[in-house]
Write a structure and sequence with these properties.
By secondary structure, the protein is of the alpha+beta class. It contains nine helices and ten strands. Helix 1 runs parallel beside helix 2.
Length: 264
């Protein structure tokens, strides 16, 4: 069992137990519905479960990073991995499908600012980053998936800066950073830009320090800056440095202008 069939097998018992019925499937996607909710589980670049409320028009996205390569796995490991995912997300799904408890924030929303060709990618980033508005095992697992791999430094940075970047971020990631929002910050605002655009002029929404290191970035990569805000507020917790990689992966290189202090 693998791919969408495996995803459906492990999630169906959870969702039918919550009163939802399966309504259809497409390539890489399975859907369930009830009178109050629509739930879509999908594989692909950002695998996870999208829960939409028909009652208050809100939604929540729960990433499932452990399924990121499920479609390519063909071994006895698949069933064990699916069982683990089902156990991990049972309580999260039940919580997300219910009405917010007294004093609890409604599911998060996100907005993006990007050139037209980057809007879909920015929305994808927003769905992923929304995991950090819900601190817990899921957000920690998602953060771990954003840790750069050795080859990523040569994909993201100029050749002369790749080794320095790897040394700097090895130290930074030794503390297992997680970009958590505060409890009241349920909105995610994402700004996306090509590195080549940053080289010309740092876009509004990115820290000014990018001006000092723009020449050290691979101009072909797309960078994200984002912040978490409370409803009705314009300021909040700001983060930057998430990069879209080849093969549908993301990696987080926070504050590169600080990481490169030794070479700029």
């Amino acid at each position: 069992m693998k791919g969408t069939a495996g995803l459906e097998a492990v999630l169906s018992p959870l969702l039918t137990g919550l009163g939802l019925k399966p309504v259809g499937r497409d390539e890489g996607e399975v859907r369930w519905e009830s009178a109050a909710y629509v739930v879509t589980a999908r594989l692909g670049r950002v695998p996870g479960v999208h829960i939409g409320s028909r009652v208050n028009q809100s939604d929540v996205f729960v990433p499932i990073p452990t399924l990121s390569d499920l479609a390519a796995v063909d071994s006895d490991e698949v069933q064990g991995r699916l069982d683990s995912v089902g156990s991990m997300f049972e309580s999260l799904l039940a919580d997300g499908l219910g009405e917010p408890a007294p004093g609890k924030q409604a599911p998060q929303q996100f907005q993006v600012r990007a050139p037209p060709e980057l809007v879909p990618l920015a929305h994808e980033a927003g769905r992923l980053l929304s995991a950090f508005t819900r601190p817990g095992p899921t957000s920690v697992a998602v953060a771990a998936q954003l840790r750069p791999q050795d080859d990523d430094y040569f994909e993201v940075f100029a050749p002369e800066a790749a080794e320095a970047a790897r040394a700097a971020y090895t130290r930074i990631w030794s503390s297992d950073p997680v970009p958590h929002a505060r409890a009241d910050q349920t909105r995610v605002e994402v700004v996306a830009a090509h590195a080549s655009e940053i080289l010309v002029a740092v876009p509004n929404g990115f820290p000014g320090g990018y001006e000092r290191i723009a020449h050290l970035l691979n101009p072909n990569r797309v960078w994200m800056s984002w912040r978490y805000t409370a409803p009705g507020q314009s300021s909040g917790m700001a983060f930057d440095g998430m990069v879209a990689l080849e093969e549908g992966r993301w990696a987080w290189f926070p504050k590169p202008y600080r990481a490169f202090r030794s070479i700029i």
